[in-house]
Structures are given as C-alpha cells and as structure tokens.
C-alpha cells in the first residue's frame, strides 16, 4: 500500500512533465498540422543553454529563464527559417524535415558540448516528505506540479480569454477567413511555434535532472512518452494531452515499481499501439480514422 | 469618376498562368449596391477574391476610397474599410458566435468602438444574441449567414463584398437578408458589391448590375434596366 | 522521348519488336545485377582491406535502403523503425550463429525473425497514416534497443554479443569475404525488389500510395498490400542487420541508435524516393559522408566533430533537399520516375 501511494505520486509528477511536453506537441499540431518530431531535440538544446548559463553564473533560476527564452527563440527560428517553407501537400514532408532538424540539433549540441552525460542539479531537494511513515512527494515534485500547473493555467487563459488567443485559434481553424478579418496568420503561426517550443523547453528543464542527465539524445525516450500521451488524449485536444500525460506517467511509474524499470519503455510502446489501433481518435474524441 | 468608393479599371487576375478575369471595369459609389451577376464559372467569386487580395492581380488597378490597393495585404483590407464575406459564409465553426463576432472587431485600436459595433449587431440580429455561446457548427444555414454578415458589420466597413448570401437558404430567409442589406444601405450608407446566382433577389435591391461571362464584363447598367432586358436575361442570366 | 516511341511501336498488334522489348525490360535487372557483381568482384580484388570493408558496409546498407525506398517511395509508408528491424536481424543472426555456427542457417533465422517482426509492425502500420505511422515506428526504433537490457541474460545489455565466424574459405582475406557476402545479399535483394516492383505487386503498391479509394475500387486489397510491402522491406532490413553482424563480428544496441533510422530516411530521400539506384547512392553516401567527416575531424584535431559533424551534414542536406524540391517528397519521387522512364 505504501509503495502504491508512493508510485502514484511519483507517476503523477512524471506525468505532469509529459503533460507539458504533450501540450507542446498539441499546440503545434493545432496551429500547423505538423507533429513536431524535433520537439525533443529543441528542448534539449534549450536545457543546454540553461546548463551554460547556470555554470557561468551559478544561478539555477537564471538558467531556468534562459531556457525558456532560448525555447521561444528556437521556436521562432525553426518556424521562420525552416517549417514555413515545408510543402503541406503530404503530412510526411513536415515529419521528414523535423527529423532533419533532429539530426542538425543533436549534431551541433554534440560538437559544442561533447557527447558525455552532464549531471544536472535540481533547485529543490528530491527527497520525499514522509507523512505517517509513507513517502509521498519531494519539494521538487511540488515544484514540477506548480510549474506545469502554471503553464496549463496561463495557456488556458491565453487561448480562451485574450484577443491574441482568439486570433491564434481563428488563424489555425480558418486561415483565409482570419486574414480577411485582419489577423496576421503567419505571425500567429510563429507565435504558436514559439510558445510550444518554450513549453517543451520547460518540460525539458523539469525532466532532465530526473533522468540520466544532459545529453544530446536525452529527450528521445521522453519524446516517445509525450507523443504517446498526446495520441492517448487525441492530438487536437489540450485537455486530452494533459490527461494523457498523467496516464503515461502513472503507467511508467507502476511498471517501473512493480515489474522492472527497463520494461517501462515497452509498456509505453504497448499503450501507444493499443490506443492507435483500438481507439483511433484518442480517448477524448469521437473521430474514426487516424488519417492525418 | 473620382467620387467612386471603389473603382476597378482593366483588372486582370487569375490562378497560375491562365487569367480568370479579363479587363474588368466597374465602380461602386458610396452607399450603392452593385450586383455582380453571371453563370457558374463566370469569375464572380474570383472577382471578389481579387479585390480583397486573396487572388493575385496581374493587370489593371483597383482604387478604393482614393487609394490604389496595389500591394495591400489581405490582412490590411479590413483596416481600409473592406469587409469580405466569402462564399460558404466563412463562419469559423469551431468558435462560438460571440468569438466569431469579436473576431471582426479585433483589428480596431479602440476596443470600445468594437464593443459598440458588437452590441449593435446583437440588436440587429436578436437570434444571434440568444445563441452567443453556441459553437458555429451548431447554427442553421440562415443563422450562419447572419453571423457572417454580423461579423463583417462589426468590422465597420465602408464596402461589403458579399459572395452568394442566398446559397442554400430558404427563399424567406433570403428575402430577409436582402431587406436587411437595403436597410443598412439606407441607414448607414453601406456600399455593397453583391455576387449572386439568385438574380431576381439581387436585382430587387441593387442599384446597378454588372454581368460577367467567362471573366469579362458583358453589360453594366441600372438594375431596373437589366430586369427589363429580356434578351440579356435569356442570354446570360437564365430567367 | 523514348516513351513516346515505345508507345508508337507497341500500340498496333503486338509486334515482334514489342515482345522483344518487353522481355528486354524483364531481363534488364538481371543484366544490371550481373554487371554489378562483376564490378564488385573486380573492386574486391583491387581495393585495400579497409576499403574492402567499406565496400562491404555499402552493400549492407544497400539492402536496407533498397527495401525502405520501396516501402516509402512506392507505397507511401514512412518507417522510422528500420534501424530497430536491423537490430532484430542482427541479434537473431548472432544468437543463431553462436549456437549452430552455420552461416546460411543463421541468415535464414535472421530473415525468418524479421519477417515475423515486420508482419507484426506492418499489421499495425496498415491502419495508420502520416505522422501516426511515423510516431509508432519512431517509438519502435527507440524502445526496441532497450529490450536488450530487459533480457540481459540473452542479449547481454549494452555490451552486446560477439559473433563467432568461421574463417573465410581458402586464403581469402576476411574483408574481401565480408564484401562478397554483403554484396551477394545486396544484389539478390535488389534483383528480388526489381522484379517485384515491375510486376503487378509494384502496380498495386503505387495504386495504394496514389489514391487509396481508387485502388480499392480497382479491386486492390489495401491492407494486404501495405502489410506485404512492410514485410518485404522488413526482410531487407533484417538481412542488412545480419550482414552488419557479420561485418562487425559483434552486435550491441549502440550500433542501432535512433540516428541510424533517421540516416536511412535521409539516404532514400536524397537518392530519390522509390528508386533502387537512388537507394544505392544513399548507401554510398551513408559510408562516404561519415568517412569524410571523420577525416575533417582528424585534421582539425577536434574529437567532438567525430560522428557529430556527419549528423549535422546529413540533417542539413535532408532539410535543404526537402525544402528545395517543390512539393516535397512527391516531387523527389516524380523527377526520379521521369528519369527512370527515360532510361528505359
């Protein structure tokens, strides 16, 4: 029972990170109909920026801010320089270009920082509090919940309550009509990429310290978990992405705890297959075919 | 000539290499309703899309309110005072009625103006006011047309480009919409360039008519004269 | 141009000329493969051992790129999981080889296992499209290597397994022997694929890719065609993996990273999707570019450039090719097919 409670909290904490990362995928999917396969690599790049800043200044928080800014900037660059020019006649084009970006980003990071693992520190202790003899949550877990919660809340406010959010949604749903109404559709697309990339960077900042450390490929497995989360929730649904993230986090935690940590990635793959084949529209939609 | 709100001279435009419009000339005076008539494929929709910048102009010029529109981006048209209600109405079905309407006013610097325009539209269309929170896809065809029209009005246009407002609507609702256009013309001096298949209803409210065939203007005349010209009706308008 | 002439001469009653032409077309792959075999044989006697080893590596890559280009270029399914299928082939080969010490048997085992794996993934893939298929196969590429840690008694985790090979027959040096093995595999693969692609199966592949509804109306079983295509290309990947096990005389998860799968995609895109000749170009590039990057790295004395420079170059080339080709993948395919027709 104690273990179950511990694993549940651990899974929710992991899941919160996957939720944020899945949310980033959903943001870009909704805005541009592209699954950003470079999201993981972009996030790692931002975490490397944070690593440099923190090493130079000794301040975790300066690094944290730097990662978010780097994420925004990277999103803008990727959209303006590369993705804007992708032909959309086939969904595969965007996928292949994103894969090219993965190679470039991982290669550049390897050249600049080397290919060894850099341990990354957390701003708060990862030792769990005990309540009534049961280990529950660490300060770091609380930080993760707070950070992801803040992101989800601000994105919700942005999209539902602000004129810019209304413009972004309109531009994604009906580009031509939006232009006729004076919305700069290209600008909204860039903004969407920037936001998504920053959210992805945040997820990277949160997850890297809890894994093996910083490495150009550090987010590969995380990407798969987040992609699974996004698919579980339905690529079009932000609420689905968050729920999917929590589900994947719990699954990983339970499998690691009760079976074997090395089996966990396979469990995610299995979940992905089952959802793709069994409930093609994701758990939160009613659409039938996974034809993108 | 110089007093025209919209002056189109020798306009040639199209998709890719082959032009759809050839040397089109027409003008809309302030507060005038001009109907653009013609068979399917005559280039009516392309004309509107060219005027609002969605289709590239390859020749001729468009002067609006004394300014040459050359090089004006689609996004800028609404600021100049042109509102285009596209074919199929262009309601963003994923957004609510209220969001669709607010979208029309987002370009304004002063959001108080936008709010005022929004309230006016709700007064004009009580049916929309009742359905503020409904999503676009829940609306009936007539309601969608009202919403699209209302959204264009929120943007405070001098000229309305209206593409097939009667498409798929019951005659009664079409009549309502035509009456509304005439009202707006009278009360607010709104000019309308109206593309219609439904020639009878269009000519019932238009001051002037322009008949397109295969991308060229074949006739420009007073609406009343077009109504009475039996030969023309048979040749181009099919009634 | 020749296309027009062909039509002109073939349209009246099937003449002798047309029949000859048809049988010529059927024989063309055999001629090409025979010529290729001669070239390889000559090369394998003239090249120094290290170059022979590189030649063998090109051959091993050619197997998998040829299979992948048929799947992606002709059938429209993008797989990012072929690195994992190669790993499957390599490990099956290693386990069989170490147990029974019979080269032919080990190849058969490797092919049988990857056929099965390909059928399983292919069944899932046939129901998926676009980014969903890419995501699933990407997950396979990333997750499958972790299996080696789970069943570490069989697979020995990250260290992997060494592969016991009998010494080559006679006095043939090891590298030349490896080149012969790899290219025997590659040329057989290409021959098989060339015949498949030119026949009714090839037409079905393209029909499904271009318009599923139309293909269905024409009586093509979409799912079966897609699964078959996946299995065929999985077999090619498995053979390629087995050949890599022969070349390295060891297998480890580190030899089949995600970047390998991405490299394969790059290779077939640059070569021209759907083209077997393009797959050969891609395979050569997969060996030549890292070698070039390696020499640059050695000259600059920066060991961080090693490996990483190749990643950057591959990535940039892939992006530039994709953005420069109007219409993306489809036009890369199209220009090739026109070239192909002209050649014929």
From TrEMBL, chain A:
Q: Which InterPro entries match?
A: ABC_transp_permease (IPR001851), BCAA_transport_permease (IPR052157)
Q: Name one GO biological process term.
A: amino acid transport
- GO terms, molecular function: transmembrane transporter activity
What keywords would UniProt list here? Answer: Amino-acid transport, Cell membrane, Membrane, Transmembrane, Transmembrane helix, Transport
Tell me where it resides.
Cell membrane
Record bears the keyword Cell membrane: yes
TM ranges are: 12-29, 36-54, 60-82, 94-114, 142-159, 180-208, 214-232, 239-257, 263-284
Q: Which GO terms describe its cellular component?
A: plasma membrane
Note the superkingdom of the native organism.
Bacteria
Membrane topology type, per the record? Multi-pass membrane protein
Q: Which PANTHER family match?
A: ABC TRANSPORTER PERMEASE PROTEIN, BRANCHED-CHAIN AMINO ACID TRANSPORT SYSTEM PERMEASE PROTEIN LIVH
The UniProt entry's sequence similarity note says: Belongs to the binding-protein-dependent transport system permease family. LivHM subfamily.
| Protein name stated in the entry | Amino acid/amide ABC transporter membrane protein 1 (HAAT family)
Organism, by scientific name, is: Actinoplanes lutulentus
Automatic annotation (TrEMBL), chain B:
Q: Give GO BP annotations, semicolon-separated.
A: L-amino acid transport
Single GO term (MF): ATP hydrolysis activity
> Which superkingdom heads the taxonomic lineage of this protein's source?
Bacteria
Q: Which SUPFAM superfamilies match?
A: P-loop containing nucleoside triphosphate hydrolases
Q: Does the keyword Iron apply?
A: no
Q: Which Gene3D superfamilies match?
A: P-loop containing nucleotide triphosphate hydrolases (3.40.50.300)
CDD domains xref list: ABC_TM1139_LivF_branched
Q: Which residues form the signal peptide?
A: none
Kindly indicate whether the keyword Ribosomal protein belongs to this entry.
no
Q: What are the alphabetically sorted keywords of the record?
A: Amino-acid transport, ATP-binding, Nucleotide-binding, Transport
InterPro entries, A to Z = AAA+_ATPase, ABC_transporter-like_ATP-bd, ABC_transporter-like_CS, BCAA_Transport_ATP-bd_LivF, P-loop_NTPase
Give all residue intervals belonging to the ABC transporter domain.
Answer: 6-239
- Record's family? Belongs to the ABC transporter superfamily.
Q: Which PANTHER family match?
A: HIGH-AFFINITY BRANCHED-CHAIN AMINO ACID TRANSPORT ATP-BINDING PROTEIN LIVF
Name assigned to this protein? Branched-chain amino acid transport system ATP-binding protein
Q: What organism is this sequence from?
A: Actinoplanes lutulentus
TrEMBL record, chain C:
Q: Keywords in alphabetical order, please.
A: Cell membrane, Membrane, Transmembrane, Transmembrane helix
Q: How is this protein positioned relative to the membrane?
A: Multi-pass membrane protein
Question: In the UniProt record, does the keyword Membrane occur?
Answer: yes
Q: What is its main location?
A: membrane
Subcellular localization is given as:
Cell membrane
Keyword Cell membrane among UniProt keywords: yes
Q: Which domain of life is it from?
A: Bacteria
Which Gene Ontology terms of cellular component type are present? plasma membrane
- Gene Ontology MF annotations: branched-chain amino acid transmembrane transporter activity
InterPro entries in the record: ABC_transp_permease (IPR001851), LivM-like (IPR043428)
Q: Which residues cross the membrane?
A: 27-47, 53-71, 103-125, 132-151, 177-197, 227-248, 309-336
PANTHER family on file: HIGH-AFFINITY BRANCHED-CHAIN AMINO ACID TRANSPORT SYSTEM PERMEASE, HIGH-AFFINITY BRANCHED-CHAIN AMINO ACID TRANSPORT SYSTEM PERMEASE PROTEIN LIVM
Could you identify this protein by its name?
A: Branched-chain amino acid transport system permease protein
């Amino acid at each position: 029972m104690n273990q179950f409670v511990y694993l549940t909290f651990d899974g929710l904490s992991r899941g919160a990170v996957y939720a944020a990362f899945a949310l980033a995928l959903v943001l870009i999917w909704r805005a541009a109909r592209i699954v950003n396969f470079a999201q993981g690599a972009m996030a790692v790049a931002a975490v490397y920026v944070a690593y440099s800043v923190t090493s130079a200044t000794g301040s975790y928080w300066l690094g944290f801010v730097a990662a978010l800014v780097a994420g925004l900037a990277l999103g803008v660059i990727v959209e303006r320089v590369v993705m804007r020019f992708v032909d959309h006649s086939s969904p595969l084009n965007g996928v292949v270009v994103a894969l090219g970006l993965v190679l470039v980003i991982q290669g550049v990071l390897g050249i600049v920082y080397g290919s060894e693992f850099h341990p990354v520190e957390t701003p708060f202790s990862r030792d769990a509090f005990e309540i009534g003899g049961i280990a529950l949550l660490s300060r770091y877990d609380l930080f993760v919940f707070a950070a992801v919660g803040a992101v989800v809340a601000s994105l919700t406010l942005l999209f539902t309550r602000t004129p810019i959010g209304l413009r972004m949604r309109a531009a994604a749903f009906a580009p031509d009509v939006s232009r006729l109404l004076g919305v700069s559709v290209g600008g909204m697309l860039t903004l969407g990429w920037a936001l998504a990339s920053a959210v992805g960077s945040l997820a990277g900042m949160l997850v890297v310290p809890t894994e093996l450390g910083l490495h150009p490929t550090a987010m590969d497995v995380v990407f798969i978990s987040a992609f699974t989360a996004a698919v579980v929730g339905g690529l079009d649904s932000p609420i689905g992405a968050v729920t999917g993230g929590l589900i994947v986090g719990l699954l990983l935690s339970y499998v690691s705890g009760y079976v074997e940590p090395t089996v966990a990635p396979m469990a995610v793959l299995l979940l992905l297959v089952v959802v793709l084949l069994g409930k093609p529209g994701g758990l939160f939609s009613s659409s039938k075919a996974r034809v993108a | 000539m110089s007093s025209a709100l919209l002056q189109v001279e020798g306009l040639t435009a199209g998709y890719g290499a082959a032009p759809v419009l050839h040397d089109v000339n027409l003008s809309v005076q302030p507060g005038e309703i001009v109907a653009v008539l013609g068979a399917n494929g005559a280039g009516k929709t392309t004309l509107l899309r060219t005027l609002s910048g969605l289709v590239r102009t390859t020749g001729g010029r468009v002067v609006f309110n004394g300014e040459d529109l050359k090089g004006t981006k689609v996004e800028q048209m609404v600021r100049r005072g042109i509102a285009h209600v596209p074919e199929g109405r262009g309601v963003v079905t994923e957004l609510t009625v209220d969001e669709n309407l607010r979208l029309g006013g987002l370009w304004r610097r002063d959001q108080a103006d936008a709010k005022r325009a929004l309230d006016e539209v709700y007064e004009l269309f009580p049916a929309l006011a009742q359905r503020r929170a409904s999503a676009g896809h829940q609306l009936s065809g007539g309601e969608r047309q009202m919403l699209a029209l209302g959204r264009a009005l929120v943007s405070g246009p001098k000229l309305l480009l209206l593409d097939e407002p009667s498409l798929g609507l019951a005659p009664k609702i079409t009549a309502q919409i035509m009456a509304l256009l005439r009202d707006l013309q009278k009360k607010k001096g709104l000019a309308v360039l109206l593309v219609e298949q439904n020639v009878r209803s269009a000519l019932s409210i238009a001051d002037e008519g322009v008949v397109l065939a295969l991308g060229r203007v074949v006739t420009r005349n007073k609406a009343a004269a077009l109504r009475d010209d039996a030969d023309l009706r048979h040749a181009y308008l099919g009634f | 141009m020749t296309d027009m002439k062909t039509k002109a001469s073939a349209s009246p009653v099937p003449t002798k000329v047309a029949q000859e032409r048809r049988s010529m077309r059927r024989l063309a792959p055999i001629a090409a493969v025979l010529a290729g075999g001669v070239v390889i044989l000559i090369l394998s006697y003239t090249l120094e051992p290290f170059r022979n080893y590189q030649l063998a590596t090109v051959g091993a890559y050619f197997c998998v790129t040829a299979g992948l280009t048929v799947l992606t270029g002709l059938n429209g399914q993008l797989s990012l999981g072929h690195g994992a299928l190669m790993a499957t082939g390599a490990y099956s080969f290693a386990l069989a080889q170490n147990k029974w010490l019979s080269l032919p048997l080990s190849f058969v085992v490797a092919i049988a296992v990857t056929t099965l794996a390909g059928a399983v993934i292919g069944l899932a893939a046939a129901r998926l499209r676009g980014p969903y298929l890419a995501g699933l196969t990407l997950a396979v590429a990333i997750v499958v290597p972790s299996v080696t840690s789970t069943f570490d008694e069989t697979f020995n985790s990250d260290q992997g397994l060494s592969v016991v090979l009998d010494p080559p027959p006679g006095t043939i040096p090891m590298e030349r022997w490896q080149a012969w093995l790899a290219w025997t595999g590659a040329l057989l693969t290409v021959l098989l694929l060339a015949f498949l692609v030119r026949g009714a199966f090839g037409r079905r592949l393209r029909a499904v890719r271009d318009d599923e509804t139309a293909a269905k109306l024409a009586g093509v079983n979409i799912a079966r065609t897609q699964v078959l295509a996946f299995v065929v290309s999985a077999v090619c990947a498995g053979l390629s993996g087995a050949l890599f096990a022969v070349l390295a005389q060891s297998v480890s998860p580190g030899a089949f990273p995600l970047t390998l799968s991405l490299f394969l995609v790059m290779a077939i895109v640059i070569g021209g999707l759907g083209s077997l000749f393009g797959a050969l170009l891609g395979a050569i590039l997969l060996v030549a570019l890292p070698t070039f990057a390696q020499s640059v790295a050695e000259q600059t004395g920066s060991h961080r450039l090693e490996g990483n420079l190749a990643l950057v170059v591959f990535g940039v080339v892939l992006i530039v090719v994709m953005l420069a080709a109007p219409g993306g993948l489809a036009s890369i395919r199209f220009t090739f097919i026109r070239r192909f027709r002209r050649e014929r």
